[in-house]
Amino acid sequence: MRTFKLVAETAGERLDKYITQKESGLSRSFIQELVSSGHILVNNQSAKPSLRLKTGDTITIEIPPETPSELKAENIPLEIIFQDRDLLLINKPPGLTVHPAPGHPDHTLVNGVLALEPEMEDFDDPLRPGIVHRLDKDTSGLLLVAKNRQALANLSAQFKERTIRKYYLALVKGELRPAEGFIEAPLGRDPQNRQKIAVVSDGRHARTGYKVLRYIQGYSLLEVKLETGRTHQIRVHFAAIGHPVAGDAVYGQKESWVKRQFLHAHRLSFALPSNGQVVEFTSPLPPDLEEALKILETPS
To answer: What's the pTM value of the predicted model, to 2 decimals?
Structure first.
């Protein structure tokens, strides 16, 4: 990661335009991407590309490591729940990033997929081949990967039309009431921290359904149904109503008894691209989250 600073010499210039003028090696579109991802700060605060600078403003610019120009197959153990000629259904372990990104160029799920499927069809996005949807690095559970362009288009259309059903198991802080309901609040980049998501008035529509399975020592174990698929949707929605996901260090707080956010994609139903048959698969809680529940349930 390369970091450097600029000090605005004049007032009134747009942030992105000013940096472009001062750093000819950076394109304006790349600068806008850096701002949106929180890699450019003004006076140590997140900003928008259109921010009008004041004389003396300090601009901090971070240039993350480049992502690879092409992916390499890696022997990464992956649990395949189901596969056919069109797709793989993978039970993603926690701690595994789905695809390369700045600062994380390899050792991702797609590197492992390429080792399993060396003849996989080429896709328009060479760094995200066949990726239909994503799970956060520390979220475990069911993830679909398309093997060919036709399957990718079919599954993407199912997500867009919201005919794919995605359910998660989540443990949230506090006793959530009512025991069944919806959270509906628009989500977008946090204006105070562009690397986070927040409920914002001009954000994208987001709706999360939930049902309490049981209350445990001041926490609620939920089955959560995603009705939309926004970044960090479950984590942000429950934090916004005062019930953050247990162990979520970004939107809640760390817990000594659980080493990651307690969030697992446990049930998924969709239509097979080959014949339209609707199928459903489940993934039980992984051992680390089962152990966390046992610790929580054990009287101190």
So the answer is: 0.79
